[in-house]
């Protein structure tokens, strides 16, 4: 049986239905593997009071930093503040609600959400402010913190190559948070560098099966380097 063609003509159409006060998963690590065109389209869309879940908030003036400047993000769930001075400023001033989560725990919360697992126990964070207000239990001789899974209304994902049916391949470290986030949202939107006809991808190389992908759009990427270090 033929699959469903997931291709969407524009980034704006790909975000149809994304409205105020929604929760949005955004793939990437720093500036590596971020859905930069979808974020620019979200900026133009103007949706506000968003809860955004991403490893960090990138840098000033690019990627998620643009949504911080436009005050479209109400709450940020991330593993660290990173290199974004505006993110730090809004956090310290109380303008932005920030939930800092250990990086491995954040990844597992999203993976669990995609797998239909409502919560899990982890030793990470026990005895620290991370565990405040959360259920804890002892298994054997170790103490654990219960962490609830994360799901979202939309996931904005950056892939390398996909076929019409939404089967996606990521390139190298641009996998980072993208594969787990693609499974954990009601609507998953993927932008890629190349779209090929069905049958052109090796099934053994596919990272995200098309069953998880709702919309697919072709993008052109700037791919900024967050920090460049050269020898003297």
UniProtKB/TrEMBL annotation:
Presence of keyword Nucleus: no
Pfam families documented for this protein: CoA_trans
Annotated keywords: Transferase
Lineage top rank: taxon: Bacteria
Protein name: CoA transferase subunit A
InterPro entries for this protein: 3-oxoacid_CoA-transf_A (IPR012792), CoA_trans_fam_I (IPR004165), NagB/RpiA_transferase-like (IPR037171)
SMART domains to which the protein is assigned, alphabetical: CoA_trans (SM00882)
Classification via SUPFAM superfamilies: NagB/RpiA/CoA transferase-like
A GO MF term: transferase activity
């Amino acid at each position: 049986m033929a699959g469903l063609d997931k291709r969407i003509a524009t980034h704006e159409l790909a975000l149809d239905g994304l409205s105020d006060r929604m929760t949005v998963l955004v793939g990437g690590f720093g500036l590596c593997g971020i859905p930069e065109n979808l974020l620019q389209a979200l900026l133009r869309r103007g949706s506000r009071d968003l809860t955004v879940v991403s490893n960090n908030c990138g840098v000033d003036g690019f990627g998620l930093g643009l949504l911080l400047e436009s005050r479209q993000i109400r709450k940020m769930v991330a593993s660290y503040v990173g290199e974004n001075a505006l993110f730090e400023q809004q956090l310290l001033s109380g303008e932005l609600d920030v939930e800092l989560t250990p990086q491995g725990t954040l990844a597992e919360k999203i993976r669990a959400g995609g797998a239909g697992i409502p919560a899990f126990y982890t030793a990470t964070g026990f005895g620290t402010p991370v565990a405040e207000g959360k259920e804890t239990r002892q298994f054997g001789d170790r103490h654990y913190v219960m962490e609830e899974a994360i799901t979202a209304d939309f996931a904005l994902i950056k892939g390398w190559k996909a076929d019409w049916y939404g089967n996606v391949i990521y390139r190298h470290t641009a996998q980072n948070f993208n594969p787990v986030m693609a499974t954990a949202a009601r609507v998953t939107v993927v932008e890629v560098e190349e779209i090929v006809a069905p049958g052109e991808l090796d099934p053994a190389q596919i990272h995200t099966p098309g069953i998880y992908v709702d919309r697919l759009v072709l993008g052109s990427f700037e791919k900024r380097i967050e920090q460049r270090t050269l020898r003297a």
